[in-house]
Design a protein that fits this description.
This protein is of the alpha+beta class and 168 residues long. Helices cover 29% and strands 26% of the residues. A hairpin with a 5-residue loop joins strand 6 and strand 7. Bound molecules: nickel (II) ion.
């Protein structure tokens, strides 16, 4: 398994709209395993293929405390949603930034698994938030897009400063 470089805001490639996965071959399995390794190493609770510059409708997540509940969603769709919840979100593509975002509290999801088998399930709480956040990546959307233009500009400046500091 290898760790994949994660694109960071405001990289324009994060705005690419992902295409459906149509081939469930060995290369896809390797990509999924590499995405899990990358997500756990970061560490994070979700990663969309868009974030590793693969513009396919694929995401991996694990919101468990013990990091023992890996989930793969291929070509996911939210077919029902209810309620609302505000949660302080972060993103591996927007490192060190956290902000409140409102999303549906309960969702019904249809997706394929890593072998192309259909799955349908209901999610709530952190899992529902995480799925909605990751699915946004597949349409080129980031959680900072929900912030006001002024706040988003502050985020961009803070990231620039962090990068300059890291470059030493
Ligand atoms: Ni994210």
């Amino acid at each position: 398994m290898s760790l994949l470089p994660i694109l960071e805001y405001p990289d324009p490639r994060l705005r690419t709209k992902a295409q459906p996965v149509t081939v469930f071959d060995a290369a896809l399995q390797t990509l999924i395993d590499d995405m899990f390794a990358t997500m756990y190493a970061a560490p994070g609770i979700g990663l969309a293929a868009s974030q590793v510059n693969v513009h396919r409708q694929l995401l991996v997540l694990d919101v468990s405390e013990e990091k023992n509940a890996p989930m793969v969603l291929v070509n996911p769709a939210i077919v029902a949603s209810a309620g609302s919840r505000t949660y302080q979100e972060g993103c591996l593509s927007v490192p060190g930034i956290f902000a409140d975002v409102d999303r549906a509290d309960r969702i019904t999801v249809e997706a394929l698994d890593r072998h192309g088998q259909a799955q349908s399930f209901e999610a709530d709480g952190l899992l529902a938030i995480c799925i909605q956040h990751e699915m946004d990546h597949l349409v080129g959307k980031l959680f900072v897009d929900y912030l006001s233009p002024l706040k988003r500009e502050l985020v961009r400046k803070k990231l620039e400063k962090q990068r300059r500091a890291a470059a030493g």
